[in-house]
Amino acid sequence: MAAKRPNLLFLFSDQHAQKVAGCYGDTLVRTPNLDRLAARGVIFDNAYCPSPICVPSRMSMLTARHPSAQDCWTNDDFLASDRATWPHALGAAGYQPILISRLHAMGPDQMHGFVAREVGDHSPNYGGVARHDMGPLNDTNDPNRVSVDVSGPGQSSYQLKDMETADAAIAALEGIAARRAAGHDEPFCLSVGFMLPHPPYIAWPEDYALYAGRIGMPALPAPETDHPWLAWWRENRKITDTQPDDVLRARAAYWGLVTRLDILIGQVVDRLEALGLAEDTLIVYSSDHGDQLGERGLWWKHTFYEESVKVPLILSWPGHLPQGERRAHVVNLIDVAATMVDALGGKPLPHAQGLSFLDVARDGSARWIDETFSEYCTDTVPHWTGGMAVQQRMIRSGTWKLIDYNGYRPQLFDLAADPHELHDLAEDPAHRAVRDRLVQKLRADWDPDAIAARMRARRRDKDVIGAWARGTRPADQHRWKLTPDQNWVGEKPAE
Question: What is the CATH number of the domain that holds 293?
Fold first, then answer.
């Protein structure tokens, strides 16, 4: 008799800074459901994203390949449909991968190996066309100063979408339970993509009230002398003079959004358990990247500081993984993809750069290469780039982190001695050997000038496709209906 195959519930949020969770040491935030998952499973303290922006991070998580391995760096890059993904691998292994809500794939392929999809994305499938209208919250979801200034209590479409996402996930679980009651016991593979706590920094008044007056200012002020690219980024985004009231309001709202996300995750997990589906189900929670949240005078993502590039990662699988344990191993979302395929018995993706850390999750003494990379590349088209294209890469190797800013000096941090990344050692002669070794390793398969040329070539194609989309108005697939009236600031408007 064949062994019963496990199930997967993959919970994937957007822009959740690792440190803002009770299980990661935040004593203020209320995240009882994530904390419960962590208590029942294994939590990773050094999990990183493949890129500190949405699309490349998400597409790399799908394929277990770094952005530069699949020419997918920006938020309007398409992932080629013939790139095998972890849903493809699990479909080949006999599963029917289902996606509820957020994928954030660009282009005509809105499935990438999923066989069914509900709710969909809030934004268009193609670049070059008008984006969603958020009414009074327009521009607050992008890296613009207005997102800090227009923050606090209120409501955004993103939260409403997440509420519908949780409902759809529960309905999917109920459908699975009904099929099992009818005698069909095939394993399930369910992914649930949440938007929160992505900006706008707007939280329901009751969630905001939990933290207003209690949240403090960022612990790390903007340095008087900083790396030249980071100094330029602050100036470009006009966040050098954010006001304390605005900072506190935006931070309180973000903590409120994390709490609301936790509530929605709790609803899904509670229903999983109530339906008797939790047995032999691997639950994985993570996010696509973090958020600076005002630390060092920075907001949003786009940097390689820990607040931006680290992600929460929890695996809970009673009977298969230990409970209440932590791992210090350096892992990446591309490794998460490989691990989920491994856990469910699929064949490894043929071109995967990510590795399964399932043995590490089971046993903290298992061998592992404590090293990973992250990339941040843009061309000059997004308005928030200020007309500056960048090709940047980070390596985390053991306790060392080196950041390569093409055209600028690098940064080097010893995270064991300096976990807050306050002391840049890149110009210290005593650390020259470490710097040179890491630069050589980072550049071994990474040529920023060649990547810039590839990006320019891709842009010419994307310009044509964007003009085509403006001219032909193709129908979006799997698009959630977002309307301006869903968004408000302050008290709820009268009906």
Answer: 3.40.720.10
